[in-house]
């Protein structure tokens, strides 16, 4: 089974982004891919919360998801919208991943669990949780012959989520992202390869890339990594495009047999080291 990472340069106009998605999906399907992953914030990459509030609608009856369902049906593929912002009743948004089957029916949704809240030296505080509500459940879903685990961008820095996905049967883990250029140059390849190695899973990471209409710049370099940590497909740069590779599930079995991390894992307690009494 061939899988494809669709690299995009999403802007602030949803219809233009959906046009770009459809063109890339057609290109991937023509090359035989039957599972297609788009990046984080596929539908709109807003400049700020106010702009997002003007554009992003609720999940129910979402016209952009309806169009994605139609693309999946027309091409006969699993189309995985890496994420889009969906409006919630409390005024925040869910950063939601939506997986469509070849019949256009939603097979799974996942809300990004880990939100980036940080105080950055010399810069303003960044609080993703002020705009988004984090999810609280790990999600896996069947896709053809394999089980897919769902994650989004910042999630890749949290190995316990990937461990949980693999222990719940995931053989391929999707990581749609919109990584900044400095963090991408430093961490993108090494983190994704580590997540593949430690779980014995394929990792497919569809990225945003280039200079966006909202003023942001993203790293690109969409990747597909095999269970031994080898990069088997990559878009070498930030231009829109398609990366395709074939999933061989015997490689998952082989990696997990040779390095049985999941089977050898043990629970343990962490205890502080207390001062020792003088003898």
UniProtKB/TrEMBL annotation:
Asked if the keyword Magnesium belongs to this entry, the reply reads no
| Domain CN hydrolase stretches | 1-249
Pfam families in UniProt: CN_hydrolase
At the top level of its lineage, which domain of life is listed? Bacteria
Q: Which UniProt keywords apply?
A: Hydrolase
Q: Where are the transmembrane segments?
A: none
Asked whether the UniProt record includes Repeat among its keywords, one would answer no
Q: Which Gene3D superfamilies match?
A: Carbon-nitrogen hydrolase (3.60.110.10)
Q: Which SUPFAM superfamilies match?
A: Carbon-nitrogen hydrolase
Which family does the entry's similarity section mention?
Answer: Belongs to the carbon-nitrogen hydrolase superfamily. NIT1/NIT2 family.
Protein's name according to its UniProt entry: Amidohydrolase
Q: What is the lineage of its organism?
A: Bacteria, Pseudomonadati, Pseudomonadota, Alphaproteobacteria, Hyphomicrobiales
């Amino acid at each position: 089974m061939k899988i494809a990472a669709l690299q995009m340069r999403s802007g602030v106009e949803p219809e233009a982004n959906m046009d770009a998605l459809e063109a890339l999906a057609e290109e991937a399907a023509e090359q035989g891919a039957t599972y297609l992953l788009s990046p984080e914030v596929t539908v709109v990459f807003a400049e700020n919360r106010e702009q997002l509030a003007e554009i992003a609608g609720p999940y129910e009856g979402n016209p952009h998801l309806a169009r994605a369902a139609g693309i999946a049906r027309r091409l006969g593929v699993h189309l995985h919208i890496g994420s889009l912002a969906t409006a919630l009743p409390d005024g925040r948004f869910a950063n939601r991943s939506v997986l469509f089957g070849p019949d256009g029916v939603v097979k799974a949704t996942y809300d990004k669990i880990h939100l980036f809240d940080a105080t950055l030296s010399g810069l303003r505080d960044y609080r993703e949780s002020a705009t988004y509500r984090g999810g609280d459940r790990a999600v896996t879903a069947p896709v053809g012959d394999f089980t897919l685990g769902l994650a989004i961008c910042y999630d890749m820095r949290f190995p316990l989520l990937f461990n949980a996905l693999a222990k719940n049967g995931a053989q391929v883990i999707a990581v749609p992202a919109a990584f900044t250029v400095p963090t991408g140059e430093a961490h993108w390849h090494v983190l994704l390869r580590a997540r593949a190695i430690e779980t014995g899973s394929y990792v497919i990471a569809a990225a945003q890339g280039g200079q966006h209409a909202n003023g942001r710049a993203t790293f690109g370099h969409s990747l597909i990594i095999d269970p031994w940590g080898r990069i088997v497909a990559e878009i070498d740069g930030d231009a829109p495009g398609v990366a395709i590779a074939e999933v061989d599930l015997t490689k998952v079995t082989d990696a997990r047999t040779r390095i049985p991390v999941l089977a050898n894992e043990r629970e343990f307690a962490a205890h502080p080291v207390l001062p020792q009494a003088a003898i």
